[in-house]
Amino acid sequence: MAPAVPPPPPPPQNTGAALELLVHGVGGATPQEMLGDPRTVRVTGDATAAVYRRTEDAHGEKYPERYRDEPVAEAYCWSGLTSGNGSRALWLLLLPFMVVNLAHWMRPTATGRTRAVRLYGVVVRLVALSLTVLLTAAACEVALDLVAWQCAGTPACSERRSWLGFLSSHQGGWWSQPGRRLALAALVPAALVGLLWYLSNRTWSAYESQSPLDAADADACDPDGAEEAHGPGAADPSGEGRDPVPPALGRPGFWYGRRLVARLRAAHTAAGFLTVAAAVSGAAARHDRTAGSSVPQVFGAVIEGAIVVCAAVAVWVVCRRGRSERARDMRLDGALITYLPGSALVLLGLAVLHAGWSRPEWQSSGSLPGETAFRFLALGQGLLVVVLALVARSLYRRTPEPRTTLYGLGGPSVAMLACALGGVMTGGVAQRVADWLDGPGTPGMGEGSIIEGPPVLLSWQASVIPVLLLLLLAPVLYLTVRTARRARRMGPDIEAEYAPEPPDRARTRRIARIRATAALTDSAPWIVGVVSAATLLLGAAAVVGSWTSGEVPGRATDGAAAPVESLAEAAQSTGSWLIGFGFILFVASGRRAYRDASARRTIGILWDVGTFWPRAAHPFAPPCYAERAVPDLASRMCAWTATTKGRLIISGHSQGSVLAAAAVWQLPDTARRRVGLLTYGSPIERLYGRWFPAYFGAVPLLGLNRSVHCWRNLWRATDPIGGPVRLATDPDPGVDRGPLKDPLAYGRTTALPLPEPILGHSDYQADPVFAKERTALLEELGPRLPRQAAGGVSTQKSSGRSSG
């Protein structure tokens, strides 16, 4: 006899007031703007992120009978996590780290591909490690090679720089020996590594270290980071019959990856110190291996061997463990995070002491042999990106999703862009410093140069930038023409949409142009793909050219046809200017943002989008604000539904809709049944679903719709960011509402004598559909409270001040 099927659980009983929890989008908003009232009060939170209400609604849950028709409005303001402090604009210098961290989260959807998913994560972490080494190597190139070795060792250069007098080789002072100059200059890159460690540790404490409310979970369920290998909703691979793995964003430990960040911080800090130690000890050891050295070569050999061993340990730490998400990762590998960076720092100290040993016979000439290191770094990054592309393509072919960016190659393309950004920034610094030290000469060209200049590879990489820009003209021109044609084709449809109002050609053209331009967002993946592919090929050509010729492009083409020689020199000079200008632009933008509030707001928007994801690949990336915001929202919703038993709508605009969805995923089933989700101007599918399919793809979004009580998504054709959710099911779940009419009125009327603005991505609340859909969501959540007799007093218990 078949067992009886248990009856479905009863619908939640509505015993309290309704709440609308508003979450703003990119750029931030004040509580007064969100609530439409200058009088607001903070309910819970701090100066960084907090929940606010109107003053008159401060204790709204005490009097639910007052809110039968309109919900209590709360505003969650999280702009202080991203764009509140001017000094945060300096995070622009960490842009390559942030971009490579995004590549970690862009892997295609995978189910049951444990090894492939782990390999994807390992390769991304190795690319991230190479960027740390590249940044440190560039600092060593500037401080050790260009300043301490070349300029201080060349009288013609050091005489022009009075601040280098005590290091000058021709003055014969205590610091004039090459090894001692290198030892002193090593303080600069070592201080840079220490600063990155400090910022990573401090931002973790300020943003991401907030312990969850339920801190009892340990990491015993997933000691080896196996959770990284599971796709959202994948079955348990152990075959032991346990429940399926929940969607990734709903796992308890997703927003608390303390253990991995600490491990990666230790490994990257050690790698930075070891890079400096290798640069210092390598120069001294090479001299000691020559005849006539006063220092036994065994000392240098022992230090170099220890550096290799410690570097192997750092690479093993990066490869060994990924993210653990099934349980909150509360433990720390205390010995590892203490002794690995400490050992690397000790080796750096030994290298400095070894280099500072007196060697009267040692004279510096030419440049430090760092060319090979930069070539291997560039070659290694290219190979890692190719491997990452093969793994990503394999994952996509196993579980293809039509809307996935570049057929699964979005992550490798973004990783390639991160390497290119790292090359532009590091090469720009080296090129500008070399030009500054060389005065009127051009480093590497021989004629008029007093120093050798930076490695030849950096000049070749700079030379391909003009070529890359020329290659981009074709797709940019194509998109421009296509957008103009699309706008012209939209004209009759727009006039028909607003009929019977008389046509206005200027008004029609403006609406069509904005709609066609908004559609360009969907073409962005192909631009990224073209740039990444061209960067990979041109970068490989630069490595080959520098390796085979050993000269900068302007000299490598000497003797060739006149047009070829002229083009090479033009590409080298233009590229050198562009690569230096790119770095100066980063610095100038950061400085302007520090002084200008409007610029600070604009730059803050970049981090609103780029730092949503936890630091899973690079620990020196800007901090993840969602590790604070998502638990805040989830805790607030749980507190409301538990204490009031009332209805709740979480209403998110733009990036706030992504935070809202992530918070809903974190709710327990009992709380989720009382929650409705209202999103508008949302990039949750248009951007996140396409670029991050394993976390916001079709399957996770369909699961979100089925798990939440009700969901509505509003979008406009004029919005370049927001779009429909596109839940392709039968029957249609009816989540999307749009495209909404924008502008609301085509021309001037007696009721609207002034022209209505085209709102695009903003002011969704101004559309009457917004209030209509919010009311419909409240009705779906449950009936309104019955009206009480006049003068009646509610008997519901209240906790007074709302807690979260």
Automatic annotation (TrEMBL):
The keyword Zinc does not apply. The chain crosses the membrane at residues 89-107, 119-139, 182-199, 266-285, 297-319, 331-353, 373-392, 404-430, 458-481, 523-547, 575-594. Residues 216-226 have a biased composition (Acidic residues). InterPro entries: AB_hydrolase_fold. Residues 793-804 have a biased composition (Polar residues). Keywords: Membrane, Transmembrane, Transmembrane helix. Residues 215-245, 781-804 are annotated as: Disordered. Coiled coil: none annotated. The keyword Nucleotidyltransferase does not apply. This is Integral membrane protein. It comes from Streptomyces stephensoniae.
